[in-house]
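Page 42, continued from yesterday. The earlier attempt failed because a stray header line got pasted into the input along with the sequence. Redoing it now with the clean sequence only.
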Amino acid sequence: MKNIYEIAEKLYELDQQYNRLSWSQYTTGYDFGTSEAYNKILGELSSKENFEIVEKEYNESSTDLAEKRKAEIMYNWFQPYHLSKEANELSIQIQKLTTQLSQILNTHRSKIDGVEISSVDIGQILSADDDREKRKKAYFARAQVNKPLVDGGFCELVKLRKEYADKRGFHDFVEMRLKDDGLSPDIFNGWKKQVHKALPAMKDARQKAAEKYINDSRIMPWDESYISSKIAPSLNTKVDMLSYYSIIKNIFMKFGIDISKFNITYDVFSRANKSEWGYNFQISTGKDTRILANVKNLYKEYNVLMHETGHAVHSYLLDPKEIILNYGVSGIISEGIANLFGGLIYEEIFYKDFFGQKDCVKNEFAEIKKYSKINALRAIDTILFDQELYRNEINSLQDINELAFKNQKEVLNEEPFGDEYPWGYRIHHTECPIYLHNYFMGDVTCEMLKKVFCHSNSCITIMDKPIEFSKFLMDNVINSSGLYKYPELFKKISGEDFSLKYIL
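This time it went through. Structure tokens are written below.
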């Protein structure tokens, strides 16, 4: 497979350059040529000579599992660019418009009463402000980016993506995205029924929380973070974020992972023109990974830092020589590992350095984990909305808002909470559609991994044997994550097909 490796290496070099430019765009707000970099990648992918080499290797059907998987990954990567000239032209248009909309999103700043406010400050109001009306204002401030995105061409972007999926021969864009990721759309069958089955217990728990903390019977969207912080007030403890690196380093050391040996760049404090979301840019596997975040001074903000560092560590634990297999790692596995480390802020192994071993903190975090588990299936609402955008006619901001509230009614049986639904601030809809399921399914995967590990190691929690769990992750997940499609890897580890039962 010498020739196919050479092609992969060339693409990898171009991909690194594209990622560097994306990092610059997201941290400064300026585009120094991402579209041009993307076009170079497209040039390699649309090369007839390259495709003939890849297709030949794919059709030869090697008996070696790893070689066969590499050929499959490369073929699936190249094949879409050899269907038609129109499809390739659409791909360029989509990338160009996506970059333009990302610029709008990254540089946008919401306002409350005419005063500009950062997403970090909005989050803190939603989490800690006792004034419910102020929280409501902060929540709807997130919707202010909706109109600029639509005016900038978001509806056109949705149409272009639909057209592209059609040119590739798929039923719809959702099916195309899922199959590109090695998933079947059938994996979501029954999810609404699972939510509806859980609604009575969910509504009961939420009503009790609402009555206790906000003297009402219904939790509104602007109450969600506030109630979580009331259940676990330690989440809003002020901390010195300047020492974030040493704290993160210490916790990973407990798992036998020394991040000081890794070249991880952190950019974690807010500023003008910087994206207000959180990302890990895997510039070069095992050599250069970069973390963008926006934190201020609260304990709970370590969740995003640990999540993104989880991504970075995963990148460094992958074999940098396995360029092709690394492209085959499922987003579910990636987000699952990141969520696993992000969730450590609720564990004594992490919080004792801030709070000691106080029973009150232990009880708080036990209670918030219990409450979060009851509400876990609510994520399915936004996951299915992400998909419904591509299964309905979208021509205006009103169409999107109506669709969002319709989906919310069908999934959660909840009435609209206003005239506009804050959706645009979630960069996934613009940058990486049909992706939100990766976080939720990643959580399900984490619960499965914990159960399998604890059963085979005779322990109650992975915190009992963190070093052994780290090795378990390497041997069973990270070393195999590119070799198998997600459903195959899940079954290989658990012995059964993917199921929501692990999170229920």
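Notes: The chain has a mean pLDDT of 96.
Reminder to self: strip header lines before submitting.
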